[in-house]
């Protein structure tokens, strides 16, 4: 009886245990969307694996505050009801088991053209309206095939284009083509997937009807692979026919054609290739700030009679007869019958950090127009702009403000050195530039070209990183990336260069994601000077010549690379007899600069040893030796782990002063190519919220010190050891992290928010509202003004925003809301050590109470 009862109880317990376990044995979370990064309107969905019947979850923000909770039955997908932009940690429970991951919600990236590449998508293949047509290669009869929109496999969206060819009855090729919009592209990028093709043939028809054909080698893999064409009148097995038939590219392109060749198939008579995300890429125009379109007197231009030399008369009027652009131009007239030396039109403006000035002039009476620009110190820089005797509009361009014909300076610093930004402009009609006593000149479209501000990231795709994470880097809003193509891997046989496939892959993927490459030529090569296995630095003339040849081969192999750095951190990474010294670096830099510039004059050479805040004496010695002659841009790595990012300014200013000291008072561009803060437990680490705040402040702060590019270090955690510095610099987690591959740290969202604000923006100036607050003023890509306000230290504070209409406020983590001014035209905004973005054309001032 006892045995029977025990058996029955055991069966009952087994039955209950099979239906509902007392405790879940499995609980795991995996990203569905790359890195768990979502944009507005995307439902937050996380992969869920559990044997529990149900789970509960909670989502907390960066302060640990729970913002949402929920529960659901077990399923392969967990749906999280969070819609506000920001960074969140997700905690999921099933019985006694707990799993965590992180996710982010961002605003979509603007598609407006910005500095860098502007991409025109001509091959989404989402519908037939794009106009792709199949061609059976009829001049070689026998081939059959087709082209269709395919829903079974795609690189993005819901469709790809699939080209199929069958040569069992003959023929040589099939193709697909479409006409193109008139875009002055300088490269084409797309993705391809094929089971067995070794190459594709690519054709572009130029404006004359000439077809330019080249071969694109495929990797042999069967997954999606990126392809990029950066030269249209060259390439492997290049041929041309039709049209001008001169082998010279005459843009823009009229038609594109992708060819599936019988000769690319091995061991079969048929094949196919899928195509997706085909884009035409062209350089975006440099950003400009209009200073004078003369459509309204509200611009603030005024007439000045040159009163310090009495006697001249004249006027400023708005002329509607044949303006260069718009509906009217400015007309300046001068009459010197009563004496005087000049008359002028002039205006002041919000400080503009200009790199060039352009204007249109129309006159038949002047031989020159006078230009005066006032810098930030109040110093006036004056030069003469010579005019032709043409009676039509002519464009003038100025790229140097502290030099030029008849240059002189006065006021302010009075040192003949340009101290930007500019604060005022004067255009003079001089008596000495006319043959009589009266004259007039029309002026229009006065515009300042502003720096190509760019935020990017250092990466290690040339090392051991997978290129899978590249779209996540682009989604931050970064416009550039910095990586390597190691010399020792490219030249394994002396004089022969073969760059690893991973370099081709990541550069092509960068191009398709509109990331401007900065490539580093480094490190040593034991075919030549070899004192050290890791950082063996060239130290003989033969070794330096070999390095220069490798750098030249790098620029030749990758024409899409317009920025080339010579070595990484010579001042700490040049082992052996080179001994990290300034003179040994200069010898290498000179050899490399001379070689590369001779063959690739448009490549920007980035150098300077990458001096950090502790190596100022090294950099001064390098400059004293004449090193500035052999670089176009000075690279610095101003790490300051123990300090807030505002300290970067002092390091930048010190480097700039040294440049001017040894470069005849003339600046060289400065780029920060590495700087960052690491999390974890190592000495000098910061918590994740501080890393986020510091990176955003660094992005915002450096344009105020005339730094055009800032590459944070680095995009992804390099490992999972919390005690290792190098494992914890990233914006996203390592692929082996327990929180999930590439899942975001708070810094990812803060960086992305700042990058969106700065995307194509122009720095205008810095204000100090009080209470230790910093107010950086910018013009957004569309010209709309915005401000970034924060405190370098201290507690929370408030600012009073005076405005005539609604004001948009955006937090460090991208959450935006609109505030309307009170009856006094004021809005009160809470700010602190984190940046707060305030935008709106209605904002007139920001002050601390």
Describe this structure as you would to a colleague.
There is one protein chain. The chain is built from eleven helices and 49 strands. The protein has an eight-stranded parallel β-barrel, surrounded by five helices. Strands 9, 11, 12, 14, 17 and 20 form a six-stranded antiparallel sheet that branches. A six-stranded antiparallel sheet has the order 10-13-19-15-16-18, with no helix packed on it. Mean pLDDT is 91; it is low at 1-22. The protein has 849 residues and is α+β, with helices and mostly antiparallel strands.
What does the secondary structure layout of this molecule look like, with pairings?
Blueprint: H1 2-19, E1 27-31, E2 37-39, E3 44-50, E4 54-60, E5 66-73, E6 77-80, E7 86-94, E8 97-106, E9 117-123, E10 133-135, E11 144-150, E12 160-166, E13 173-179, E14 187-193, E15 199-205, E16 211-217, E17 225-229, E18 236-241, E19 255-261, E20 270-283, E21 288-292, E22 302-304, E23 313-319, E24 329-335, E25 342-352, E26 356-362, E27 368-374, E28 380-386, E29 394-398, E30 408-410, E31 422-430, E32 438-449, E33 454-458, H2 470-475, E34 480-484, H3 487-490, H4 501-512, E35 516-521, H5 541-557, E36 563-566, H6 570-573, H7 582-599, E37 604-611, H8 616-624, E38 633-636, H9 648-662, E39 670-672, H10 688-701, E40 707-712, H11 746-758, E41 762-770, E42 773-779, E43 785-791, E44 797-803, E45 807-810, E46 816-819, E47 826-831, E48 836-839, E49 843-847
Task: Classify the oligomer.
Answer: single chain
- Total number of β-strand segments? 49
Strand content: 35-45%
Q: Order of strands side by side in the largest beta sheet?
A: 33-34-35-36-37-38-39-40
Low-confidence stretches: 1-22
Radius of gyration over C-alpha positions, nearest whole angstrom: 31 Å
Shape, please?
globular
End-to-end separation in angstroms reads: 88 Å
Category by helix and strand content:
alpha+beta
Query: In which range does the helix fraction lie?
Result: 10-25%
Overall mean pLDDT score? 91
Outline the biggest β-sheet: 8 strands, parallel, barrel
User: Total helix count?
Assistant: 11
């Amino acid at each position: 009886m006892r045995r029977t009862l025990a058996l029955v109880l055991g069966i009952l317990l087994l039955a209950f245990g099979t239906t509902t376990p007392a405790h879940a044995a499995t609980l795991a979370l995996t990203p569905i969307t790359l890195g768990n990064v979502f944009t507005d309107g995307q439902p937050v969905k996380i992969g869920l694996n559990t044997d529990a019947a149900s789970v509960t979850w909670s989502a907390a923000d960066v302060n640990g505050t729970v913002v949402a909770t929920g529960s659901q039955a077990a399923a392969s997908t967990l749906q999280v009801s969070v819609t506000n932009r920001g960074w969140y940690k997700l905690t999921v429970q099933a019985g006694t088991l707990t799993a965590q991951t992180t996710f982010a919600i961002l605003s979509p990236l603007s598609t407006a053209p910005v500095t860098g590449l502007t991409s025109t998508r001509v091959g989404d293949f989402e519908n037939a309206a794009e106009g792709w047509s199949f061609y059976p290669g009829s001049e070689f009869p026998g081939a059959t095939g087709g082209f269709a929109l395919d829903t079974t496999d795609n690189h993005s969206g819901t469709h790809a284009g699939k080209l199929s060819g069958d040569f069992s009855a003959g023929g040589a090729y099939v193709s697909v083509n479409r006409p193109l919009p008139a875009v002055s592209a300088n490269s084409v990028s797309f993705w391809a997937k094929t089971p067995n093709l070794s190459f594709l043939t690519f054709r572009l028809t130029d404006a004359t009807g000439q077809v330019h054909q080249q071969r694109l080698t495929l990797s042999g893999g069967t997954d999606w692979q990126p392809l990029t064409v950066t030269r249209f009148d060259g390439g492997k097995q290049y041929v041309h026919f039709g049209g001008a038939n001169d082998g010279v590219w005459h843009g823009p392109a009229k038609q594109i054609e992708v060819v599936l060749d019988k000769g690319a198939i091995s061991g079969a008579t048929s094949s196919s290739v899928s195509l997706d995300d085909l884009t035409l890429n062209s350089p975006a125009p440099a950003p400009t700030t209009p200073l004078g379109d003369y459509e309204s007197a509200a611009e603030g231009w005024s007439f000045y009679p040159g009163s310090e030399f009495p006697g001249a008369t004249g006027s400023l009027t708005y002329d509607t007869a044949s303006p260069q652009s718009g509906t009217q131009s400015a007309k300046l007239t001068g009459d010197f019958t009563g004496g005087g030396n000049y008359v002028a039109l002039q205006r002041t403006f919000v400080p503009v950090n200009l790199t060039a000035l352009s204007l249109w002039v129309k006159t038949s009476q002047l031989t020159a127009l006078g230009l005066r620009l006032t810098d930030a110190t109040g110093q006036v820089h004056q030069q003469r702009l010579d005019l032709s005797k043409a009676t039509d509009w002519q464009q003038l361009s100025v790229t140097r403000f502290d030099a030029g014909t008849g240059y002189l300076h006065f006021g302010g610093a009075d040192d003949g050195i340009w101290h930007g930004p500019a604060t005022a402009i004067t255009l003079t009609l001089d008596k000495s530039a006319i043959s009589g006593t009266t004259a007039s000149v029309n002026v229009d479209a006065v515009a300042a070209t502003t720096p190509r501000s760019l935020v990017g990231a250092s990466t290690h795709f040339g090392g051991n990183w997978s290129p899978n994470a590249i779209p996540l880097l682009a989604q931050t809003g970064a416009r550039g990336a910095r990586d390597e193509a190691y010399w020792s891997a490219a030249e394994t046989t002396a004089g022969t260069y073969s760059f690893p496939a991973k370099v081709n892959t990541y550069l092509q993927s960068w191009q398709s994601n509109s990331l401007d490459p900065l490539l580093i030529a480094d490190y040593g090569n034991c075919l030549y000077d070899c004192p050290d296995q890791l950082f063996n630095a060239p130290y003989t003339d033969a070794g330096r010549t070999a390095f220069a040849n490798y750098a030249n081969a790098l620029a030749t192999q990758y024409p899409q690379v317009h920025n080339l750095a010579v070595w990484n951190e010579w001042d700490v990474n040049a082992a052996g007899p080179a001994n990290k010294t300034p003179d040994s670096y200069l010898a290498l830099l000179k050899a490399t600069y001379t070689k590369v510039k001779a063959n690739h004059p448009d490549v920007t050479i980035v150098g300077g040893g990458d001096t950090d805040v502790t190596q100022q004496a090294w950099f001064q010695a390098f400059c004293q030796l004449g090193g500035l002659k052999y670089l176009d841009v000075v690279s610095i790595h101003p790490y300051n782990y123990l300090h807030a990012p505002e300290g970067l300014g002092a390091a930048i200013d010190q480097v700039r002063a040294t440049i001017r000291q040894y470069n005849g008072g003339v600046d060289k561009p400065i780029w920060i190519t590495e700087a960052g803060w690491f999390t974890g437990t190592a000495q000098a680490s910061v918590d994740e919220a501080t890393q986020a705040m510091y990176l955003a402040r660094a992005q915002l702060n450096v344009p105020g010190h005339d730094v055009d590019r800032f590459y944070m270090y680095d995009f992804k955690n390099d490992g999972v050891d919390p005690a290792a510095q190098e494992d914890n610099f990233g914006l996203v987690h390592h692929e082996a992290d327990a929180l999930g591959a590439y899942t975001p740290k708070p810094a990812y969202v803060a960086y992305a928010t700042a990058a969106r604000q700065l995307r194509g923006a122009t720095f205008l100036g810095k204000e100090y509202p009080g209470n230790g607050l910093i107010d950086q003023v910018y013009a957004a890509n569309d010209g709309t003004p915005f401000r970034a306000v924060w405190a370098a230290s201290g507690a929370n504070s408030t600012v009073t925003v005076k405005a005539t209409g609604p004001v948009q406020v955006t937090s460090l983590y991208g959450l935006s809301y609109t505030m309307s001014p009170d009856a006094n035209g004021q809005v009160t905004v809470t700010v602190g050590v984190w940046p707060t973005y305030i935008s709106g054309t209605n904002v007139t001032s920001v002050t601390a109470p």
